[in-house]
Amino acid sequence: MAPSLSEEEIDDLVYLARTGEGAEFTELLQELATRESATAVNILTAAREEQSKATCLHMAAANGHAKTVTLILSHLPVPTKKSTAAVAPPEDTESEKTIVEAEPAYIDAQNSFGNTALHWACLGGHLDIVKLLLSRGASPAVANDKDQIPLDLAAFNNHMHIVDYFLAQSEDIEGDNAQEGGLAKETEEMDVAEDKTAGVGG
């Protein structure tokens, strides 16, 4: 059963994540988890703004609060490569599958405009946050409602340090796609487009 959080409790969690008040955020998160007999991940998943659908991770990432992002990520299961599930004993296969799928469901949660926390980190030019999210399995390929991936938001807002990081990591991020150009090819296509601008709705 999903935790039953009041609108005020959700607002408080989101506010503390947005302002980077880690100690208060942790205290409230633990208090709610205890009251609801739920895990921190359950509480985090339930705590989304009603209209924007933004999560606590969105807010911390957008505002460059690396410590708060790290704190939130610490409550999520460590991503396990799918190949590990394949070699696990039969009785462990399902639990491995759960671990693989549990984190992306939250870390790649999209707000009402389709943006993930990684989109917002790229939009804000927060390279440290981008690195944190990618290291924990955030997908760089999720597109928002305007068909923009996180790299697009970094490029459109002239955060070239983030674009350069994506390109440097493209082989690890995209795997076989990198052999066909991948992110480098997409960046070239964006450069060719004349005066291409795109506002971000959320």
TrEMBL record:
Region (Disordered): 177-202
ANK repeat intervals: 113-145
Key words of the record: ANK repeat, Repeat
Pfam family, one: Ank
Signal peptide positions on this chain: none
Gene3D superfamilies: Ankyrin repeat-containing domain
Amino acid composition bias (Basic and acidic residues), ranges on this chain: 183-202
Protein name: Uncharacterized protein
Species in which this protein is naturally found: Xylaria bambusicola
